[in-house]
Specification:
Elements (H helix, E strand, L loop, with lengths): L17 H21 L3 H46 L5 H16 L1 H15 L4 H8 L1 H14 L4 H26 L2 H27 L12 H19 L5 H9 L1 H12 L2 H9 L1 H16 L10 H27 L31 H13 L11 H10 L1 H16 L24 H13 L4 H30 L11 H17 L5 H40 L6 H13 L2 H13 L4 H9 L12 H49 L4 H38 L6 H5 L8 H5 L40 H9 L1 E2 L5 E2 L20 H4 L9 E6 L10 H5 L5 E2 L8 E6 L3 E6 L4 E6 L13 E7 L8 E6 L8 E6 L4 E6 L11 E7 L8 E6 L3 E6 L4 E6 L13 E7 L8 E6 L3 E6 L4 E5 L14 E6 L4 H7 L1 E6 L3 E6 L4 E7 L17 E7 L11 E7 L2 E6 L4 E6 L40 E7 L8 E6 L3 E6 L1
Antiparallel strand pairs: 1-2, 3-4, 3-30, 5-6, 6-7, 7-8, 9-10, 10-11, 11-12, 13-14, 14-15, 15-16, 17-18, 18-19, 19-20, 21-22, 22-23, 23-24, 25-26, 26-27, 27-28, 29-30
Length: about 1250
Amino acid sequence: SSLVVFRPGPQRESGWGPHADMSRSRDKKQTEDLKAALGIDPDKQLRADRQAIVEDQLEFLGKLGFGATGAVNAWFDGFVSFLKGLTLPQGTGYAQRQAFIIFMELTTSPIFLLVLAKILQVFYEVENFVLLVAVAAFLPFCVATKTLFSSIPCPRTAAVTSNFSLLFVFGVLTFFGLFSQQNIWITYVYVMVIWPWLGVASMIARIQIGGDREQNQFSPLWHLPLLGTVGAVSTVMQIVAIKTLTICDATVLVLLDAVWAAFPACLLLGQPRRDLHFQFLKVFMGVVALAGLYFFGELNTTVQFDIAHAMFIAARVMLTWRSIYVKRSFVTVNDAEPLQAPPENESLFLNSFQPRKHRFRKFPRPVLFALDVIFDSGLKDSEFHGIGPLGTMDLHILTDFTYMLPVSALLCWVTESDTLKYGLFPAALGELGAVDLGSQAEAETVRRLATETVFSSGDVGVIVVIVVVFALSMLVGPVSASRGLFDRGSSVHAWKYRPITLACPFVLFDVLYVNSDITKFQIMMLGCIFGSLAYYRAGLWEVFKRRYLLISTMELQFLQPSALRELQRKSLLEFLKKTGTDDFGIFLLETAIHHGNNVRDIMKSTGLKVWDPRPSATAAWKLAASLVVKAVKQQKALQSNKVNQRTAVVQWVHSVVLGMIDEAVDRSKGHGKRLQLAALHSRLGDKQRVFRRLRAVLEKRRALRSKKRAGLSTAPMLLTTAGGVLRPYGSVTQPLKAGTRTGGPPAPPVPGHLPIAQGMTHGATHGPGQQLALNATLQSEASVESPSGTQSVPGTMQYNQFEPRGVYSMGLPVVDEAILPSVTCVAIAFGDSSKGQLGVDALTLKHTIHCVTIDELRAKDLVQCQAAGSCSFVIGASGRTWGWGSNRCLELGLRKEVAQVDTPKLIKHIRDHPVVQISASRSITGQAHTFALMANGEVFSFGTSMSGALGLGAPKCSGPTILAMTSTVQIRQVHCGARHTLLVADDGHVYTMGANTKGQLGTGATSSQCAEPTLVTGLQAHSIRTAAVGDDHNLVVTTQERMFAWGSNHCGQLGIGKVADSHVPVQIQQLQFEVDDSGICSFAAGGQHSLVVTRRGKSVFSFGSGASGQLGLGMVSFEDSAFRLYPTLIPDLSGKEHRTIVQVAAAAEHSFALDKNGELLAFGENDHGQLGFLPHHSPLVQRGPVRQPWVKDLRSEPSPMDGEKCVWRPTLVTALRNFRVGMVSTADRHTIVLAH
């Protein structure tokens, strides 16, 4: 089949008429014939064409509709955005928050309060402005009361009693006020004059007793009342002065705060602030001159500078000086020294250490920059604030909120008593606050006046609204102050114009609506004052920002020295000298970002050629050099390792040899029976030696008599050197006078003196009264009698060898009765062993229950034990000292390489000196220092003390070092506290050194510490017999049996009836009558409590804190106070026939009492087992009747107190039932006893 292609001929021109119709018909017929030939249905094709046309039309209409809708929506959105931009504020979240803070500052500013008061005066004829302050201060006072009562703990009974008393007094005063005054306003002021002071007294008491005085530097007794009273009086003075002044006048005087703040800032905030304000001295003079022109410069008007202006200026001066004083207090407490201005020359880039960028150190980094601006820039000198937002609110609550109500009510009662009956409403309305209008005639009169007056009920509503806004503004003031200083929406760069921004709306309101008398000249002067103040504050910000950028430059130089090469340094200095601070800051930022490479681009743009190679340009050379240097370092390291290995071997051999020698020397002294046998041989040898010397003396005297008979006595030069001893020439040439005593028994020994400590043979065991005279004989033969009759040895320090010192002068019965030293004495330790302070190794601790015996100290003739914070000490009769435990603070006197010793180790540095007493800090917190007293009265100190307790002027001492003062002043006793030390001299004087934050030095000085021994002048009139030292307080007893105390007393541990610290010694009067008859037998001082034993051990008193049972008075209930401010008798230890207490010991929150029969009683805290009972966390605590079969220790018998956290009454330590305890010493977490 063939396809016929139809090709139409040329079309004719379309037109009208029969020819056109015939042409169209013919074309149509040809098209139909063609479709029929091709098999196409004409109707179907027609329908498809029509459908396509309809779809095209619908698509066109859809596009047209969508376009029109989009255009309408876009136009509507633009119109809505335009309306929002006109009506609503636009900005980011930061901008909105900034606007909110500005609104808060605007509605809480002092000018806003003055404007509200001025509106009441001008438009509503209200004159009782002080009453307005008193009414507005009621809600802040309630907030302060609720905050303090809820945040400061108080015993439940005391809190209920105090709150009920306040409510009862409030009700009584309100009833009497309404009954007597018949007016609500007068009654309100009457009640508020009296009642708030009771609440203030209660709050002061709670803050004084329960507050943390270490964190709050302001005393609730005089700092906070003074600050609050100044704020309240200043507010009242401003509100009274505004009755006469205008808003513009008050604004001018408020803007002069910058001038008033400059004077105290120069005096109190350091030399940088003086230099800063001196730069703007001309600006200060100009502002004052403009203020003077504002008041007195108008020629046609006479302005009276009356008492109101002076009162307002005085109020602003007091507020400003109060703010500067608070800043000075915070700077002093936080040791925030001012930052010095960096140099603006080449020295800026010479930094060997990272520069200090912020004044404060203990606060988060985002707050540090704000604190620097607040304290150093001068932009916020007149703001009353604390450290941080919470600190600012607390400061306002403790001062203004607390004292505004009573002070303003009192001043209102004094100044507005005549118009007080009208309250806060116009006098034309009458006494709207009257309770009883009296007769009907008076009521009609009042009603008539209220009807005829121009004020309506709507005006009364407006007055109420203004008063409410005034009260809310005062209430929200601290929140606004804290947000304005420390909120993220209050940027420091916006502070420079903030006072002007806040003052402008009120000035405009005063000029337009209130103050019709202001002149154009005054408006012009006001604008000049605004401009001068803006220039001054912009300059302050410029100086501060410049200093901060310079410090940042120094920091960049220290952290990234490669970023600031020679070219960058010169460029930075050029920018600093020839451009503005902002330009310098931008250039510094770009230099830090580009690592200094931006300078090359700048030089390239200017056409200058400089040599500033990139750090990567010399990478190959640096790599080669680093490889060479690394190889050289490796060679040196190998050689050094070989040398170190050889040195280590030599040192190891040396240490082994020395250890063997030390062990041999120590073991040569003998143990047990060998020691007793050596003592017998020693006594026998002493007797033989004495007889030989006596025979030699007799033969010598016989020879002298024979020489005298032979006439040889005329040769005095021979006699002066006879026997190898030098004698004075007169003693051999002049005969003795008649009646001179040449013989007789020696002077009796000093009571309580044991000659074993003054040179007796080591190892000898003595009974009561038995003494050896060997060393005394040797000393008498080697000594020379001086013309004054005293004995002296050439080349040695003079001291009284018969003066009892140390443990021999404390009046301990176990020492005075010669029970110690003894061969059978053992040392027992119990408590915390985390730092080796129990004297046994870890393997031994695994096989013991709790109380351990230190076997290394058997047969050492121990006379004293001393438990310290993390270590322990004992002293032998020969004067040797052993120590063990932690040496991290050098408190053991060992080498600094030795961190801890688990078993007793002889302290070699002082083994050549006979030690008679050792004392160390018993506190586990703080520094650890140790003092050792020698037989000749010298004192050695070692350890660590940042408070100067070592008395050496240095915070650390690696080895025992003699205290310089003791070379001339002989010491009888040494006692160590937590951070201070007390020395008792032979003459009865007391010397102290160390920390003095709570008056523990007793010198009356207010300094925080003293690094040299200082005489306690308050005890010079008394001779001190002995002393006891707690963590921060001291107790001493005189020879007249009078007890004095001083130091920390926040828990009543001084026993003087109050809780205030004492910086000078105070006598405990309550113990005076007890000690007159029998004296004080023993006493001890713990962390926050004290113990005293009187009446020969029959009466035991305790005072101070008993929160953990350390007073021995039983469990403390919620109704009873845990503090005892006066000495209180312990019933379980007093008045018992079978019980005689000979020694008490205390530390931290626990105590011990030692009975004459050797029984040890303990009470107080037992968290670490320091009482001799198993601690509550010990796995060996008996939970039931079943016992562990593997426990075989004789001292493991369970006690009823095992597992108890606190022992509230004196309880016998059953673990020591097989021993007779002779001495006890305790520290914060462990205890050492000497027992038989």
